[in-house]
Design a protein that fits this description.
Length: 367
């Protein structure tokens, strides 16, 4: 999520500094249990949907910001699913403005989509699969209209996480729709400062690491063993890349997965949904950190949508990293691996089982 190299212009494809052998094979991330940022969003809708003390939540309805995707993108979108299935784009944003500027999250100006996850919920809404898109993936950005009405021209071979800062969240949605052929029914964004406040609100999250971590970029220093992390430490933990492995963005995914599982466990252990006071505190912190599409930008809509997902068990949700390979021109970047990526997106579009072959990523040691 953060770089220690000199800041680039938001649309730059300049190489990031990863150190060591840049083509060294990463640890296999492949199939993951539970999604990282999606658990925050599931927690939000579950808290919002809790029946006890619902009247308290009316006061935090104004915390939510909304993005009108239909207005921003227009008709240049894939068709909606002819079923009750849902596709949600979830972003963790790394804006350096406001409260985020105090979090030691790097020096890049503006904001970028630091973490991106496409959550696919098939008809029946009893299971889910989430596809994570590495931030360093080179993509084709379509022509987009920004929030001020200006037009951003289409461009090839731009870093995925630069689309947000160049053209805004609606353009990220449009980019994902173009690369996948799948319409995003909803959009959810969580910013860094809100992530920190959420962890502090629940009293910290406990994690266990099997090796010492010292990352001068994120500021995290941990010895091997079990630690209870506060909000700032948790943010450093999920952003750490230079203190583990070979310092790659892909290698960091494992830590993020581990943390989000620990976060969900902490929420369940505290029985937040059974405590109106705690539920209000968490809902207040989390909704202040959320930006959604306009259809979800009210507590009532968010709660209704959350209740529709009650059949999805996060413990059985599968997360797959988009299969990527090192770019032949710039080994510091990755591109969607073919035919795996095409097969993966097609399986989601058609509601068929994702073949194991579509989950293998050459950049992480898969064939």
């Amino acid at each position: 999520m953060s770089h220690v190299s000199t800041p680039r212009p938001s649309d730059s494809d300049a190489p990031s500094r990863r150190g060591g052998n840049r083509r060294r094979k990463r640890g296999r991330t492949g199939k993951r249990r539970t999604g990282r940022w999606i658990l925050l969003c599931l927690a939000a809708v579950l808290v919002a949907g809790a029946g006890t003390g619902y009247w308290l939540y009316r006061g935090i309805d104004g915390n939510l910001d909304g993005v009108d995707l239909d207005r921003a993108i227009g008709d240049d979108r894939p068709e909606k699913l002819p079923t009750s299935g849902q596709n949600i784009l979830i972003l963790g944003s790394d804006s350096r403005a406001g409260a985020n500027a105090e979090l030691n999250t790097g020096t890049v100006s503006g904001a970028r989509s630091d973490t991106a996850l496409v959550m696919h919920i098939p008809e029946g809404r009893t299971e889910a699969v989430a596809i994570s898109i590495p931030r360093d993936t080179l993509v084709t950005r379509p022509e987009c209209t920004t929030s001020d009405g200006s037009t951003v021209a289409a461009a090839q071979r731009v870093m995925f996480n630069s689309v947000y800062s160049k053209a805004g969240p609606a353009c990220v949605v449009k980019t994902v729709e173009k690369m996948s052929g799948i319409r995003m029914d909803h959009y959810v964004e969580v910013d860094f400062a809100g992530f920190k406040d959420l962890v502090d609100a629940i009293g910290g999250v406990t994690v266990t690491v099997d090796q010492d971590i010292k990352d001068t970029s994120s500021g995290l220093e941990l010895t091997a063993g079990t630690h209870k992390l506060n909000g700032t430490q948790s943010l450093q933990f999920v952003r750490t890349r230079h203190g583990i492995g070979d310092g790659s963005d892909l290698g960091r995914i494992g830590l993020q997965q581990q943390f989000m599982l620990a976060l969900l466990s902490e929420i369940k252990k505290q029985d937040l949904l059974g405590s109106p006071v705690k539920a209000y505190k968490i809902a207040d912190q989390l909704t202040a950190a959320l930006t959604t599409d306009s259809e979800l930008a009210s507590l009532t809509a968010l709660a209704t949508f959350g209740r529709s997902l009650n059949g999805v068990d996060p413990a059985t949700m599968e997360t797959i990293m988009l299969p990527v390979a090192y770019d032949k021109t710039d080994p510091n970047r990755v591109v969607a691996a073919e035919p795996q990526a095409t097969t993966l997106w097609k399986a989601l579009r058609t509601g068929t089982t994702i073949p194991d072959s579509a989950k293998k990523s050459p950049a992480t040691g898969g064939n």
